[in-house]
Amino acid sequence: MKIIGITGSSGSGKSTVCEILKQKYLVKIIDADVIAKKLSAKGTKYLAEICKVFGTDILDEQGNLNRRKLASIIYSSAQAREKLNECTFKYIKQEIKQEIESTKENISIIIDAPLLFESGLNEWCSCIIGVISTKELQLQRVVIRDNISYEQAEKRLYAQKANRFYEKNCDMLIQNNNNISEIKEQIDVVAQKCNITKKLQ
């Protein structure tokens, strides 16, 4: 079973790449962000540990995680981001490990994780694909996706790795500039190099 990592900063277009891979190739997508959201549900150990570090002010009136409030904290401080990662990486990695071990089909596992390197998940991967885009396109996508201001989106991107990091550390790159046909061509090249099996048409 091949494990392939897909990473990139916010708004780079990782989800688009993963969706195309899912449509055309025999893969199972494990989305680290989706797992983090599931683990942060009310009453979980994951949420309790975050509250222990950041206080219960990050909860809403119903006791659920207020993601906007937490985001405003961690994107304002590198130290806060490190503390959050220390709290959460172990839970996310354990869940991803269980997902991998429960996979019975002979397919490639794709770990979609913006913090692939920071979490150490890169060590599990035989191949790492970086998804990059222009800063302007990334900002536009983040503003629309998260319904936040341009300034807030800039703050988030500033706190993340720049394209040069992915260019240096990933095995291959996909440039996502909203041209779907070009993205599909790049995915086909990358999939071939990573030995990902194509679905029968």
CATH architecture: 3-Layer(aba) Sandwich
Helical proportion, percent range:
40-55%
CATH fold description: Rossmann fold
Residue ranges: pLDDT <50 for 5 or more in a row?
Answer: none
Strand proportion, as a percent range, falls in 5-15%
Describe the structure.
By secondary structure, the chain is an alpha/beta fold. The protein has a single domain (3-193), classed as P-loop containing nucleotide triphosphate hydrolases (Rossmann fold, 3-Layer(aba) Sandwich), CATH 3.40.50.300. Helix content is 53%, strand content 12%. It has helices at 14-24, 32-39, 45-54, 67-74, 78-101, 116-119, 135-146, 150-158, 163-169, 180-193; strands spanning 3-7, 27-31, 108-112, 127-132, 172-175. The chain has a 5-stranded parallel beta sheet, with helices on both faces. Helix 2 (32-39) crosses helix 5 (78-101) and helix 7 crosses helix 8 (150-158). It is globular, with a radius of gyration of 17 Å. The model has no long low-confidence stretch (mean pLDDT 95).
SSE topology:
Elements: E1 3-7, H1 14-24, E2 27-31, H2 32-39, H3 45-54, H4 67-74, H5 78-101, E3 108-112, H6 116-119, E4 127-132, H7 135-146, H8 150-158, H9 163-169, E5 172-175, H10 180-193
Parallel strand pairs: 1-3, 1-4, 2-3, 4-5
Helix pairs in contact: 2-5, 3-5, 7-8
